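Hi R.,

Here's the chain you asked about this morning:
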Amino acid sequence: MLSSEPNSIQVGVYQESGRLHTYLGDWHTHPDSGPGLSRRDRNTLRAIAAEAGARAPEPLMVIIGSPADGLTMAVWCRRVGARRTAWLRLKMFDYADR
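And the predicted structure, written out as tokens:
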């Protein structure tokens, strides 16, 4: 979780960049399942959006999953005031398989 403490890495990068580099969200993998949001993922997105120090009112979460049909990536966005989390799902493949 992003911390707004003055000594946190994220805040340091933001300040050192002249307030140009900013936090967009988090990413992680689901090695044995698809890239759907878990309850924990949804709660994390809500917490990031609510954290003023994150400066990310509409945070992104990228999840790479590996269900039986291959790697799949989903990019989730928690929109301000939205009742649901929006997503974009992308199928990943290996060029060596072509």
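Confidence is low (pLDDT under 50) at residues 1-7.

Let me know if you need anything else.
M.
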